[in-house]
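hey all, quick one before standup. I had two proteins in the batch that finished overnight and I want to keep them in one place so we stop losing track of which output belongs to which input. First protein below, input sequence then structure tokens straight from the run.
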Amino acid sequence: MSNILKSTFPIDTFKQLTLTSQDGTVISYQSIGQGPSLILIHGALNDSLDLSKLAQELSDSFTVHMINRRGRGMSGPQGSEYSINKECEDIQALQKVTGTNYVFGHSYGGLVALETARTFQSFTKIALYEPGVSIGSLPTDWGWLVQYEKAMNKKDFREAFTRFVRGAGHSPLTRMPNWYAKLILRMVIRGDHWIKIKELLQANLYEHLEVKRLADTYNNYQIINANVLIVSGEKSPETVHQMIRILSRTIPKTQTLMLPKLHHLSPCNDHNPIEVARHIKQYFLR
């Protein structure tokens, strides 16, 4: 479980709360703001505080609830029987406690939002930023995931992280030799940033095994009855835009939006959360 709770924003502006999920796991979340309730679901290798600036930007119009997914902050571990179904149960528990009709998910958090919406049909509006959906019909080389798992078994965390960054396809390092990418990442990702990533690498592995498992199931999203907005960054790879085009044809009430100059991490602190928040706010207030 990650114990890093650092943020560039005053933590006392957020209410620190917990709930108990269906399987007895304690799930922590932070709330801020006033107005209709909105749940934010962070991505892989992140915790709730990575969306704290996004939450603050939305808090003048919404009561924002940032969930710490399993394995982060004060939330319990993923557990030996982890699957994305557990994440869906956690979101559903938070939805019941807060009475929330709106949800935003980034990356893997977007996949969790879609799976929750498909399973429980409990949201009226959903906003996704580059959801972590793998489309079986699109060419995908999952060899990196095998190498990632091997590196984790050897406790070679730098190698595991490099395999993830190159394999996930959201970085220019994808086109570079593994040894060179590993060197660059070692120089750039250091200190507390690296400590946080290292603590989340095992959880990230299990989460991406779920992404792979669900690769041929996206047609299940045809039954989602909520209004859905799927946002992407102009600088993200073409495979991401292809995935979004397929999802927009699959989910009945979907609209898409591409934001100039943005990329996969734009909702997170130190990137472009203010720009993302502006469009998310407009969507939910309509």
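OK second protein, same deal, sequence then tokens:
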Amino acid sequence: MKARKPNDAARSAHERLFPGHVSTLAVTDPELIAYFDNFAFDEVLRHTPDLPERTRLAMQLAAMIAVGAVPEYRVMLGAALTVGVTPVEVKEVVYQAVPYVGMARVFDFLHATNDVLTERGVELPLAGQSTTTPETRGADGLAVQKQIVGDTTVDTMYANAPADEQHIQELLSANCFGDHYTRTGLDVPTRELLTFALLAALGGADPQVRGHVGANLHVGNDRATLIAVLTALLPFIGYPRTLNALRAVDDIAPATSEEDHA
């Protein structure tokens, strides 16, 4: 039987993203790599024509952080930089992951990012992107939190938290939103889309995925965008986590009759 190989479209996309790179797995596991490349670098791209390439790669980087795939992240980071994702944007993807997957996981990805950037001649540290101070992060974070998820939702979270948990709500506002969402380098809709990608890939965070489907809609990321992101993540996070996130999308942003018949 003739050996399967990636098709022309997959090879072209692969060469654009990873110029001159030949995977060792293409030698040892040619059938699997043919399946995967045709899937990830042809089929998925045909189903996400309106998702900008730079956005797709940023979301895939976030997902790789969430699943702990450092070697694959290094390779995909090179592709992201090749197609124009800036060093600042890459760093902001990594920083945005911290409140959602924890610094214990992000440490290795931060070091990997620094290694790749240094190898490419990027001088570190990059220009700072923070817009808050220790004195303003609480108020500024609360303001952007309400912008993203809505005044009523945030007020309810504070009102429903027992007295011994109030500090968690305050930390959420000041740290997750005040330290991270207020940064420049990426706009709020992109950060919220990254958060959706991180939570979908992380698994075990279904209530948070649902909450951030609503938050994405609130900042202008529609159902089509969320489905495109999940389609782009599918080859890297698998079907169970993708389908769980799709259920959240269907529950919070159900398809219209036009979309049902598209």
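Flagging for whoever picks this up: The chain has a mean pLDDT of 95. The longest helix spans residues 30-46.
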